[in-house]
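User: Here's a chain of 318 residues. Predict its fold as tokens.
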Amino acid sequence: LLQEKMPSEKRKARKQNYFKAVKQSKKYAQGKVLKEDMVGFLLTCNNREREAVREGYNLLNEFADKDLGPEKKLEEDNAVEDLDCDDIDNAFDKEKGDLDEEKSKGFSERRFQQVESGANNCMFIKTTLEDPEKLANDIITDISETKTQKARFILRMIPILGTCKAYDENIEKLADKILSNIMKEGTEMTYSILFKTRNNNNVFRDDTIKLIGGVAKSQAGKTSVDLKNPDICVVVEIIRTVCCLGIARNYFGRKKYNLVELAKPEEVPETKQGMEQMQDSTVETIKTGESGNETPVKESIPENVSVDDVEKSEEKAA
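Assistant: Prediction complete.
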């Protein structure tokens, strides 16, 4: 019986793998999967991907509408025509035509669109904007200055200026293309390299850091490495077979681009002098209640004197 079932199970498994591969290839062709030559934003979360993507859309659209205006303006004339239309069938056909036109719009033509990254708790939202770094800086600056919490599920938002295949040659070309626009002649800045890999065992940290460091040294501007407080951080994110390169300015000063931490009010550190005064006051006396009564601190008993001797001496004194 097992031998008779095996061929049918194999055929079923082959069909499933075939349809899965076809579906994946269609998504790849339509730009619904993370691949090379993309620009966008890398979001991280903690097991709430759907909510984090919704927050990302809201944040990006809010600030993009302020800078560039709304993506699609609603025409008031169309609304008036819909109200004046007596024939319900014509109104329905018109609305259906508008929906078909919106669906026929290319997937890559939308301003912000999520694509499958292939890693858990890591989402990529691609964009048609030429400079995603400016939009990300506007969001982070607004949150850090106003201290208003605009995200509950997003942990970090990193602007990605380019993607490529996760090979040394491709990474080197993309890094040179991005850094040449930043480390220009006459500029002087410090930098550090942040490396992280997800679902990839072929790209190694030390080799990639040496590669990016060599590209940074070859630029026209004067550069130096600073691991504590650099001017810019070159973010290298390897996700499966794709390398994402981004730039984060004042990364450590901005709470590592953590949107939740940026919204928290800054705590005022206590001075050293105030701490010393508090310690002295607690050592000298212990205040009880509002009456201001003070209880003296008990003196330590020498090692060669027992507790019974002390009690006897107290009774004699009484």
